[in-house]
Design brief:
With 107 residues, the chain is α+β, with helices and mostly antiparallel strands. The chain has one domain. A hairpin with a 4-residue loop joins strand 3 and strand 4. The longest helix is centred in the first third of the chain and has 13 residues. The N and C termini lie far apart (30 Å). The relative contact order is 0.16. The model has no long low-confidence stretch (mean pLDDT 88).
Length: 107
Amino acid sequence: MGLAEEARRRLSQWCAAQVTGEERRRRQVGYTVQGDTVTITERRAPRYPELGTAWASRPLLRLRLEDPTTGRWVAYRPGDDKGTWVPAGRSGDDVVELLSDALAAHR
């Protein structure tokens, strides 16, 4: 099933709304899709640009399609061990609503 175009559009809007005005020069929120997995990532400008221009990134949340027949997604947050993911205790069929709820619960 993957991620529908409408959901991609809404995710793009959600990501853009997370960072306002002038802050965008220093911070960005975006998403990537790999198969049935959506990863929300925060990117930050280099603290000392004179030492390098690479932005740092860190994953904020991952959504995985749990059941393609129902369109049910499950939220995961980064685990304590690098590269691991643990359930965020949320699932739903609306990825943007699920994302907002899961991030709010872990802030």
